Every structure is written in structure tokens, then in C-alpha cells.
Amino acid sequence: MNIRKALTADAADIAAVHISSCQSAFAGIIDEDTMQRHSDRERITAMYRRSLEKGETAFVCEAEGKLSGFCFAGKARGIAEEDLSELICIHVRPEEKHRGIGTALLQKAMAEAKAQGYGRMCLWVFRENVSARNFYEKHGFVYAGINDIRAGAEEWLYLRNL
Question: pTM for this structure?
Fold first, then answer.
């Protein structure tokens, strides 16, 4: 397993992981319109290409010769706290779950945030995505008591110190 900074050339492979992960993890949680948008390969590839071209912090995991997972992180969006970073997304191919890829990507994102001077990290997770909530709680994230409705589903804000 190799974790490295994502390159613009990775955008199509990142999009493929994004689509398979969303279809597996969010089925029955998010509304159908949102699922359709998250399944549009051309749109998702372009979205990640733009993010990578802007220099956003992103890492990929390569395992057995293919891109198996990725994450994006940066300054917390919509929360005006200077020391707060955000894990924007983390996705792993469904068939690659429970092999340590998500943990390795999360640890890399947290280490990078700490190196950039952030003291805490937040993330949003769907309330109904119990396996993801368990994953984040296992890694020290705590529900902050703040909710929002996105994509027709309730999301919870999680926080942890770095």
C-alpha cells in the first residue's frame, strides 16, 4: 500500500472510486437526484480535476497496482475557526474496505493538517451511515451536537484534536 499526494492525472481514477463508494455507502441514505449527480463520471472527474488544479490537499492510496482510495482535506468550510481543518471526503473502493486503506488516508490527512498548523479537524457524516460513524469514532472523532440536512439526509458534525 502506497499513500501519496494526488495528481491532476489521477482525477478519472479518483472519480471511479468516488462513484463506487457513494453507490455502496449512500444507497438509501441520500436522495435520488444527489445519487445521480454523484454517479456522473464526467462531472465528478471534472470536479476533482479542478480541485487538484487549484492545489487542494488530496492523497491517494495505491494498492496492488490500482488506486484504491483517496481523501481531500483543507480549511474547514463554513466554520470561522482558524485552527480547524476539515476532512472534506474520504472514499475507498467497496471491495477494498477493511484493509487499512481508510485508516492510512485519514492518518495522512490528519498529519498534513497538523503540519499546516491546524489544531483540530472536523468532518460531516450522514447520521444513517453507521459504519462511517463507527470508523471516525474509532479514530477519536466525537459528535459535536451539530446537525445539518444535505442531499435529503441528516449529517452530523464530528470533531477531534490533532
Answer: 0.94
CATH architecture group of domain 2-161: 3-Layer(aba) Sandwich (3.40)
pLDDT in tens, 100-131: 999 999 999 999 999 999 999 999 999 999 99
Please give the helix or strand (H or E) that residue 44 lies within, else none: helix 41-53
83: exposed, middle or buried (C-beta count within 10 Å: 0-12, 13-18, 19+)? middle
Own/partner pairs for 89-97, CB < 8 Å, 24+ apart?
89/18, 91/17, 91/18, 91/21, 91/22, 92/17, 92/21, 92/61, 92/68, 93/17, 93/20, 93/21, 93/68, 93/69, 94/20, 94/21, 94/24, 94/25, 96/63, 96/68, 96/69
